[in-house]
Amino acid sequence: MFGGESSDVGLTGYEIKQRADRTLRFYWVSPAMSQIYTELDRLSRNGYVDGVDDTTGKRTTRRFRITAEGRESLEAWLHTSEHEFPILKHPIALRLMLGSLMGPGEVVSMLDVYVDAVAERRKELEAVREMLGDDEALAYPARVADWGLAYYDAEVEIVEKLRRTL
Amino acid sequence: MFGGESSDVGLTGYEIKQRADRTLRFYWVSPAMSQIYTELDRLSRNGYVDGVDDTTGKRTTRRFRITAEGRESLEAWLHTSEHEFPILKHPIALRLMLGSLMGPGEVVSMLDVYVDAVAERRKELEAVREMLGDDEALAYPARVADWGLAYYDAEVEIVEKLRRTL
DNA sequence: CAGACGTATTCCTAATTGGAACAGTACGCT
DNA sequence: AGCGTACTGTTCCAATTAGGAATACGTCTG
User: What is the pLDDT of residue B138?
Assistant: First the structure.
């Protein structure tokens, strides 16, 4: 998922953050910097990743790579663990719930703003989708992106229908 | 949203938890008990809710009601605050991303299990929707529930289409 | 009247969030 | 050459959230 070529020198925490901000945020959250580094430390302590000082550049940084043990553990997780149900935190739905405390026009404009925001997100995800292309090696990430795009389309349709009932 | 009749004696933390578990979880999270009580304490300190000892039963409990100040503040929040974009944590999409590390059959069965889980969720939400009926006073919560139902339908459709591409 | 279950609250610990703070590097501008 | 600004990289801190365990009390049932 991250990494691409696995023969490379690994990623810095900063780079992981950037990748998460670009892609992971669409179906998970963008982890905080603090979270990335503490997690890398912990993974490192448990032998799942290996952090190596990279002194080739002007500046010494730590680059992390997954270890064989880490990869095994990841695969074991993929095979065995429970599939949790997605969690959604939907501020617009939360506000709509209290629509009776807002003016009717206010509800409509809230939904309009939301539809625009979804369209914007969709555009960003589409850029990611295009980067993935139809490379066989990236087929699964591409499917995830397609899923996201279809979700945004459905969301817009639902909200526009809902809007008409107001 | 909670409360219904606002002339009543208010709700205990426990009751709030139950209501959240029944409805809020569909578009937000079920807050932990600890979170509910600490938040009630904080709201109380800031004058947004009023906690009154209820000694009418065999057992003394605290019942919380929103204050006038709390209601004003809630409405101000509804009118002014920024609309954040929904946050999704989607374990199935996350795993699908790593589909190349799973067997193809494993991916398919993961999606099947997920579709079943969505159907189950949908049923639970449908029960909530039926409780809301077509009472004008509950029109907004009912719309939120309808939104959720439509979302689940879209999700199933998307996943089934995706499944066919594998 | 013991045991199980629902109600009600408190407590504890870990994880997550959301930065700010700090420091080095690159790059263009004057 | 020196300056400012932006990017890269890491650490640190405080507040919030999460997830339950623990503790009671009440009620109902066999």
Answer: 94
Burial B23-48 (b: 16+ CB within 10 A, else e): bbbbbbebbeeeebbeebeebbeeeb
**DSSP string of A3-31?**
-SSTTS--B-HHHHHHHHHHTGGGTS---
pLDDT score, position A117: 93
Residues (45-74, chain A) with CB within 7 Å of strand C atoms: 57-59
Across the range A92-119, mean pLDDT stands at 93
**For residue A58, what are its two tokens?**
């002007």
Buried b (16+ CB within 10 A) or exposed e, B88-100: bbbbbbbbbbbbe
Position B111 scores a pLDDT of: 95
Q: A24 and B97 in contact (C-beta within 8 Å)?
A: no
All residues at 6 or more sequence positions from B144 whose CB lies less than 8 Å from its CB, including other chains: A93, A96, A97, B27
d(Cα B95, Cα A1) in Å, to the nearest integer? 10
Q: Which residues are B51's β-sheet partners?
A: B64
Q: What are the angstrom distances between the C-alpha of B7 and each of B4, B11, B137? A: 9, 12, 15
* Chain B residues lying within 8 Å of A28, measured CB to CB: 88-90, 93-94
Gap between the Cα atoms of A97 and B58, Å rounded? 35
Confirm whether any atom of chain C, the nucleic acid strand, is less than 7 Å from CB of A33. Answer: yes
